[in-house]
Write the structure tokens for this entry.
Amino acid sequence: MSAETSSSLGANAQHLLTTSVAWMDDYWDEAMGLLRSPADVVNPHHPQPGASHMVRESTWYALGLLLRNNSGDVERAIRALEAILTYQFDEPDKAYHGTFYRDPEEPHPPELAIEWRHYDPNWREFIITTIALILIEYEHQLPRSRVDKIDVAIRKAAEGALKRGLKATYTNIALMDAFMLCFAGDRLNEPAWVESGDAMAKEIHRLFKLHDTFDEYNSPTYYGPDLYALAEWRVYGSTPLLRQLGAEMEALLWTDIARFYHAGLHNLCGPFDRSYGMDMRRYVALLGEWIWLITGKAQAPFPSLDRPFAHSADFCFGPCVAILGAQVPAGVQAHFLSFQGERQVERVISDSPRRVATAWLAPDIMIGAQDTGGAKQGSTQFHPGTVYWKISSYEVGWIRLCNVWPVDACASANRLDVSGTGNFYFQIFAPGLDADWIRANHWQLPGLEVQVESSASGTHIERKPEVVEIHYRAGDSRPISCSLVTRLV
């Protein structure tokens, strides 16, 4: 098989590749052999000081360099791989064995290391699945000594992953884990690893087929690695099972994404199980890179590269998307190019607990909600109620429901109904918004009027950078309900 090159890609994939790799070129540190972290100054929740470096993202860059193949690119990719391999943990008796430092500046995990705080176990899957692509396509361009070191790294990662006991419900990592184990077992002659990878794939598929959904539902960021792993299964899967199930689930996932995508508002409608932002044109959501392949950059839900944007390090993922390509069912592609008409959507996510997503999409407004059966706690990434509306030819306003205690929500035409206990609040973003226009039972927003019916015993308004928050209180453990009725103006 001849190696992939940028000239073999479609026009949109070529553009994503060349743009993302050129952007990464500016962060390359030859002395370290790694990318520096971009200064993500517009996102105070995820500061990335420019003095640190990125191990995982440098792997994506190495793939992009090999795919671009300009003068000096292969040599730089080899340099990056050399550096990346030095930051893998080789401690078989530790839970973090086989994963990698997130950045070389972070300290070694302490004796009683805590997952996520002191190390990230998912770096195994992210890095090794990308290295697998490099080996499949470009092994002949790498020094034999480097390939030998890579095989040692693959072995350590597989050993560590198998000890971890990953659950199939952790969708994006489980999908990559199945591919990694099958690839590692096939390459290193470990049939038991292939069996473990296929077993993980079967369990992911079994859970998916309950409702043709993933448990980690509707995420603008994590749908990115979902699609990446499924495309790896489809294109490079080491077993027939992977190739078959990958193609099947990939097509169904694209179909579900299309139901919730609004091309006119350039955003995925909520509710979001995990989201780092609300407007995909203001931060890098990995799903936006996949849609770029379908629509081109001009119509993609992706930030302008002419000014700072949040979650910017995820732009490094571009080569992984470009090399695999998006295989979207023919009847689904139109949803990403233009709005396909008003619709009400209802999707059962799971049965135990019963979780149901609802959404209503109209030409200039969309509302999303999730009923969790009172079973899902609030978090900074979980947005169980959302509203988007068009303010002008470019500007989009949004509202999101934020909670600590469980809440349940339902979306219907021009309406969001919420019930729960204790307290919750709404964040409102709209250019030109004045907090004085917001009252407990009526919000007069730029382009949108909202009537509020609530059982809350009290409310208060807080002005925050870029957003206004309105809090509705019922008191600890007391029931509370609230309904938003919207009207475009």
User: Anything to note?
Assistant: DSSP finds twelve helices and 19 strands in the chain. The mean pLDDT is 94.
